[in-house]
Design brief:
799 residues; alpha+beta; eight-stranded mixed β-sheet; 23 strands
Length: 799
């Protein structure tokens, strides 16, 4: 006995709680009075204060605030207009993120489970925050243990402590052993006495890193962070050099114009709307998923969900309704009443109920009232690995209940069982032996006494849903512990055609499974650890895999998958490791869940390039201004016009559009392929315009500062709107409306006097406007050539 057990046994002796009655009324009142309650509230991942702080105190906001302060010094207060957009962006981001946070919290309450507590001789269902010090709790298979506790009965159970240790091995616990908060009960059932609770539990003393499961780091998130890092490194030194150049190397430049020009360059380089758009789109995705009763437990997993190309399902609760009933019973002995009594006693003694045992209990309860008692000597509980359970009775031999192909020895009976399986029925067998149980092994000499034929009704909508996934090019894999013939027959009835394999008949190592998962659709007799291996094999083949599950035998697979989707009707442990929880436990929700994920990511991918076009051309133009010692061609308020009408407004309008097309290619490559060509051409052509104007100065035909600003902004704005048009293709009614509305509003700012005065514009001469349109035509041709070249040579996705 180790030191831990000595301490726990000493604690049990010291507290002397009656484990058959639990806490009495006086003990309950005393503990409530002394606040010895498990009411410790785990700090949320983000508080409202954290959300506000994160969105407000950013590097880009700090730079914008610094620029605003410098603009105030120049006295050009109209050029502070860009700060209105910054404040609005920040406020929208905060509002949507808080809204999503509250939605998640509200849905989390719906899935909160209770725990059985023995108090004053009665078993009560209580909330976890009502657990008292020294409470006697009943822990059952599939539960997540809410407190540190000591086992106080002679039963054993197996727990998964991977949340604490990182190891997925199941650990056997017996009387006097300590079980830890955050662990999962994988097998068995035990009474425990609360030892540590609230903030004193072992898990709450661990570092935050040790407490967390896999958090999804999406490609979208990594790409945007990469962009921000690059821009951050470049923006500050470029801005400083630009200001020095504008102040000391540009002819006839006053310090106010030098400062405003430098500010315009830096403001253009900041892709602040991209971060906001991503935050808002993901937050709206969370809210929309909540409307279809789906709890998002990891917001970054929305992108993973959108990229899924392989969906792994169990047949129960997906293809079928999961409500089993007995269709027929085949007896291989004369005394059917005796067999009924035996079977009912086995089921009644089983504390770990599932759909099969519930169906058996319902069918045999009326046939079990015969005049003798059965006394259990020992038993082996059912496990997903063995596919059977066994009971040894006093004076009535040993009886085994389980999957026929795992326990039947008679070939002719096994053939009969397979006939039923081939028709889509689930079959259970009952065997008898006069020999006793030997540890965890059943006797070799055993005889089949009955076959029980169970049927499960196929969901009406199953065929339609599977067709949806087929149309969306999402491969369906059925991974089940059932007989593969049963599963294959059911799958065929709903139009899912594919090869099947019995994992009991093959060597389930990763290398061999890589080929098997590509060749087969249905996998039968799969053990929990093999589910995880199958998913890993699919991932090794380059697939993005989602897994749905509801039982504890799905935990390893859910953790291994790229995106775990749990049913709220399933075990608490399963929900804890999943990224999404279907609160209505309906398989029919899955298409809409996939749709919403794709909507978010497709729309972000579509419009992200608009932000990056502005960032890249502002950066390139700043470099060219430095090299050419030219005055920066526009003011902050003028670039804000382009930012709002050609980038910000259409981005948010398009981000709301339905879009469930399959995700194609790599995010970073796709946005570079669209944004870089436009940025390069805009910067070079603007630089060319300014040099032409400088050349015209020698003959006193150059444009004024206001005229050249208007000319450049018209050119940049229209090219950005053309870029918007390209990302909107193919056009539909909504996209066409957005593009035309943006174009009309942008042009109006030049021809409506109050707006023109607001943005400090003048209408350029006619010859300048004609030159701008010529530049636009040449630019479009150049962008097409560069984009095509870059796409073919560097940015094409390799499948």
């Amino acid at each position: 006995m180790n030191m831990e057990n000595e301490n726990t046994l000493e604690y049990l002796k010291k507290t002397n709680i009656n484990t058959n009655l639990g806490l009495n009324l006086d003990e309950i009142n005393s503990r409530n009075k002394n606040n010895e309650v498990n009411n410790f509230k785990k700090s949320p991942d983000k508080t409202v204060k954290d959300v506000i702080f994160k969105n407000t105190f950013t590097l880009f906001n700090f730079i914008n605030l610094l620029l605003a302060s410098l603009i105030i010094i120049t006295g050009s207060y109209l050029n502070l207009t860009f700060m209105v957009l910054i404040i609005l962006n920040t406020a929208i981001g905060i509002f949507q993120e808080i809204r999503a946070k509250k939605t998640i919290e509200k849905l989390s309450l719906l899935k909160e489970s209770s725990v059985s507590a023995l108090r004053n001789g009665e078993i009560l269902e209580i909330k976890k925050n009502e657990i008292l010090k020294d409470d006697i709790l009943i822990l059952k298979k599939g539960m997540q243990i809410p407190v540190d506790a000591i086992i106080v009965d002679d039963k054993t159970m197996e727990v998964d402590e991977s949340l604490l240790t990182g190891e997925s091995d199941f650990i056997k616990k017996k009387y006097g052993d300590l079980v830890y908060s955050g662990s999962f009960v994988m097998q068995g059932q035990s009474k425990v006495q609360v030892y540590k609770y609230g903030k004193d539990t072992y898990i709450n003393k661990l570092s935050e890193e040790a407490k967390k499961y896999k958090i999804t780091t999406s490609e979208l998130y990594k790409s945007i962070q990469k962009i921000i890092r690059i821009v951050t490194v470049i923006i500050i030194p470029t801005g400083i050099i630009l200001f020095i150049n504008q102040l000391f190397f540009v002819k006839n430049q006053v310090w106010q114009n030098a400062l405003l020009g430098s500010a315009s360059g830096i403001i253009g380089m900041i892709p602040e709307g991209l971060v906001l758009l991503t935050t808002v789109a993901l937050a709206i995705g969370v809210i929309r998923l909540s409307m279809i009763k789906t709890l998002t437990q990891d917001i970054n997993a929305i992108e993973t969900l959108a990229r899924v190309d392989t969906l792994c399902l169990d047949k129960t609760g997906t293809l079928t309704e999961g409500k089993l009933k007995v269709n027929d019973v085949v007896y291989f002995a004369d005394d059917s009443s005796y067999l009924d009594k035996i079977l009912y006693t086995i089921i009644k003694s089983d504390t770990e109920q599932n759909a099969s045992t519930e169906a058996l209990k319902e069918h045999f309860k009326e046939k079990s009232d015969i005049g003798f008692d059965l006394q259990i000597k020992t038993q082996i509980p059912f496990s997903s690995e063995k596919k059977w359970q066994a009971v040894e009775f006093i004076n009535n031999g040993t009886w085994i209940l389980g999957a026929p192909d795992m326990i039947i020895k008679e070939d002719h009976i096994l053939e009969k069982s397979n006939e039923y399986s081939n028709q889509g029925f689930r079959v259970l067998a009952v065997l008898n032996s006069v020999e006793p149980l030997d540890g965890d092994r059943i006797p070799e000499n055993r005889e089949t006494k009955m076959l029980i034929i169970l049927e499960d009704k196929i969901r009406k909508e199953a065929s339609e849903i599977l067709n949806y996934f087929k149309e969306q090019r999402v491969s369906i894999k059925i991974i089940s512990g059932d007989n593969p013939f049963t599963v294959k027959n059911l799958a065929r009835q709903v139009g899912l055609i594919g090869e099947s394999v019995d994992l009991n008949t093959i060597s389930a190592d990763l290398n061999s499974l890589k080929d098997i998962v590509e060749e087969n659709t249905i996998f039968g007799r799969v053990k929990p650890e093999e589910k995880s291996l199958l998913i890993e094999a699919m991932q090794k083949n380059g697939h993005m895999v989602a897994m749905t599950g509801d039982g504890i035998n799905d935990i390893l697979a859910l953790k291994k998958s790229d995106c775990g989707i749990a049913m709220a009707s399933g075990s608490e442990a399963t929900q804890a490791v999943a990224q999404f929880v279907l609160l209505d436990s309906k398989f029919t929700s899955l298409p809409e869940v996939i749709r919403q994920g794709r909507r978010v990511i497709n729309n972000i991918s579509r419009v992200a390039c608009l932000f990056l076009v502005k960032t890249f051309y502002s950066l390139l133009l700043s470099v060219l201004m430095i090299l050419g010692s030219l005055a920066y061609p526009y003011e902050p308020i003028q670039i804000s016009l382009v930012s709002f009408f050609a980038v910000g407004m259409p981005s948010f309008l398009l981000a709301l559009e339905p879009n469930d097309a399959p995700i194609k290619g790599k995010f970073f490559r796709r946005i570079l392929a669209t944004s870089l060509p436009s940025s390069i051409v805009i910067a070079i052509m603007t630089f060319l315009m300014l040099n032409i104007n400088r050349f015209l100065a020698s003959s006193n035909r150059e444009l004024s500062r206001q005229e050249i600003s208007a000319t450049v902004i018209i050119y940049i704005g229209l090219i950005q709107i053309w870029t918007l048009y390209t990302v909107c293709r193919p056009l539909n009614k909504w996209r066409r409306t957005v593009v035309l509305a943006v174009l009309a509003l942008f042009i109006a700012c030049f021809f409506i006097r109050p707006l023109r005065d607001l943005f400090n514009f003048v209408v350029p001469p006619l010859n300048s406007l004609l030159a701008v349109f010529a530049f636009i035509i040449v630019s479009i041709i150049l962008i097409w050539v560069i984009r095509k070249y870059l796409w073919r040579s560097f940015l094409r996705d390799k499948k």
